Amino acid sequence: MDEKCHTEKIILGIDPGTQILGYSILEVVDDTPRLAVMDVLYLKKIPDFNLRIRKIFDSTLRVIDTFHPDHLAIEAPFFGKNVQSMLKLGRAQGVAIAAAMCRDLSFSEYEPATIKQTVTGNGNAAKEQVAMMLGTIFGFEDKPQYLDATDALAVAYTCFMERCNPYADLRQQLAVKGHKRGKSSRKSWTEFVNHNLEITS
């Protein structure tokens, strides 16, 4: 997927979790992303943790076999204070990646701050802000019941912007130039364009 997406590409986005796992399917045709699926895998009613992990593996395989994605984009575990929660989240991410590898899918991992920065221009944005911005981008008005679903779409969109967007290389140039000028890496795409018009002209 390193080439520009002038032909159809399908990105599977996953926001891993052991209670609720979000997933999305983003179809990219001629550099244009289109939301195909955005949903969650509800796991809270499964009392045994091992069965939850197995459910994540089997369900990820089923989604892959249904939509035939070309690439998996997955959110990296957030490093919080609760070590046990981090370990469980890491296992959820690991089995999802393992399922993708069983189908020979390549994958990429994105930090939460990178995803928020890509979608909203703010690496500290709240989940609600991410969902609202995605609603504007993809044209859905109602906020999903679970923000894990929009988080999954956000990671897929981040992958699109990095790998498929025809302006991805330009964005990188602007980011590097902004860094050399001592600007914060959290500046938005619009701010970069406004301050680097000579690159875009």
Features:
201 residues; alpha/beta; Nucleotidyltransferase, domain 5; 2 domains; 5 strands; disordered C terminus
Any overview of this molecule?
The chain is about 50% helix and about 20% strand. With about 200 residues, it is α/β, with parallel strands linked by helices. The chain folds into two domains: about 10-165, Nucleotidyltransferase, domain 5 (2-Layer Sandwich), CATH 3.30.420; about 170-200, no CATH class. Strand 4, helix 2 (about 85-100) and strand 5 (about 105-110) form a beta-alpha-beta unit. The protein starts with 8 loop residues before the first strand and ends with a helix.
- Widest sheet, order of strands: 3-2-1-4-5
| CATH arch. level architecture of the largest domain | 2-Layer Sandwich
Q: Which strand-content bin applies to the residues?
A: 15-25%
Beta-strand segment tally:
5
What does the average pLDDT come to? 82
The number of helical segments is 8
CATH class of the largest domain: Alpha Beta
SSE order, one letter for each helix or strand:
EEEHEHEHHHHHH
Could you name the CATH topology of the largest domain? Answer: Nucleotidyltransferase, domain 5
* Radius of gyration computed on alpha carbons: 17 Å
Distance between the termini: 28 Å
Number of domains: 2
The CATH fourth-level homologous superfamily of the largest domain: Ribonuclease H-like superfamily/Ribonuclease H
Range of helix content: 40-55%
Q: How would you sum up the major sheet?
A: 5 strands, mixed
**Outline, from the CA principal axes?**
globular
Structural class: alpha/beta
